[in-house]
Design brief:
This protein is α/β, with parallel strands linked by helices. The protein has a single domain (9-246), classed as NAD(P)-binding Rossmann-like Domain (Rossmann fold). It has helices at 18-29, 41-55, 69-72, 75-83, 109-137, 149-152, 158-177, 196-199, 203-212, 221-232, and strands at residues 9-13, 33-38, 60-63, 88-91, 140-145, 183-190, 243-246. Strands 3-2-1-4-5-6-7 form a seven-stranded parallel β-sheet, sandwiched between helices. Helix 1 (18-29) runs parallel beside helix 2 (41-55). It binds nicotinamide-adenine-dinucleotide. Nicotinamide-adenine-dinucleotide binds next to helix 1 and helix 8. Nicotinamide-adenine-dinucleotide is lined by residues 14, 16-20, 38-40, 43, 64-67, 92-95, 118, 145, 147-148, 190, 192-193, 195-198.
């Protein structure tokens, strides 16, 4: 099977969300053992039901708040001691300020810290634990879910776009530092994707987005899951420090 994940274990943060659940399903279908982590226990429970229904498989899970950085520092090791060695880390959980965000001049430090903690510091410390463990086994995949916002900027969301930009440079650095250890590190930069995060957008904003996207529609979780699965697979062994843009052509419009 092309892009088989047989014999590998994946750890996906934000596994109760739109892209996380579709990635968990794709991983399970390709033969991986899967652990999902999320702050919303009810969301995890419904993800487990959907994954079971679509794949016949049971996945493991951890309830965690990634904004609690002290606890996040030990989360990866905790997951490995509970479930076994992790070969693929997908830093997918993400947070954005609700509504239309805040102009930079009105951003508070609290807003900056809240978004940076979940979107950047948590992936930083999870990756730090992951590279140590993966290096010992000589194989690993780190896939960070960045955003088109890291490339275009996102008015009203300076904290969010900066956090996603920081994730890009972290990824490139991991790629270079650990290339000889059998670890690859790559990013996905989604455009506008239907999920819980975008569900609150008004019809007018959705229409604006669709008009701006050359393909004329938003993407979905499966569009992202396919790219993550490729990067996680052994076939992607020669790809590191890169970003796959999944955005219906929006970035080049
Ligand atoms: N939807 C889009 O248009 C879009 C575009 C670009 C990038 N992204 C990124 O894609 C990733 C997935 O987002 P999504 O669209 O599936 O959104 P989503 O809201 O459906 O999923 C995000 C998940 O992260 C979890 N999460 C948030 N804060 C957490 C915390 N403190 N601890 C643990 N879990 C936490 C949420 O509970 C949620 O289940 C995010 O990193 C997001 O920034 C999304």
């Amino acid at each position: 099977m092309l892009f088989s994940l047989e014999g590998l274990r994946g750890f996906i943060t934000g596994g109760a969300g739109g892209m996380g659940i579709r990635t968990a399903i794709a991983f399970a279908k390709q033969g991986a053992d899967v652990i999902i982590a999320d702050v919303r226990e009810d969301g995890i429970k419904s993800s487990l039901d959907i994954i079971k229904k679509e794949t016949g498989k049971t996945v493991d899970y951890i309830v965690c708040d990634l904004s609690n950085i002290e606890k996040t520092k030990t989360l990866f090791d905790e997951a490995e001691s509970k479930f076994g060695p992790i070969d693929i880390l997908v830093n997918n959980a993400g947070a954005i300020d609700p509504n239309h965000g805040t102009l930079l001049e009105n951003h508070t430090e609290e807003q900056l810290d809240r978004i940076m903690n979940v979107n950047f510091k948590a992936p930083f410390f999870l990756s730090k634990s992951a590279v140590k463990s993966m290096s010992r086994r000589g194989f690993g995949r780190i896939i960070n879910i960045s955003s088109i916002a890291a490339f275009k900027g996102e008015p009203g969301h300076a904290n969010y776009s900066a956090s996603k930009g920081a994730l890009l440079t972290l990824t490139k650095t991991i790629a270079i530092e650990y290339v000889k250890k059998g670890i690859t590190a790559n990013c996905i930069a989604p455009g506008a994707i239907e999920s819980r995060m975008t569900a609150a957008l008004t019809d007018a904003i959705k229409k604006e987005l669709e008009d701006a996207i050359p393909m004329g529609c938003m993407g979905n979780g499966d569009d992202i899951a396919a790219a993550v699965t490729y990067l996680a697979s052994k076939e992607a062994r020669y790809v590191t420090g890169q970003t796959i843009h999944v955005n219906g052509g929006w970035l080049i419009a």
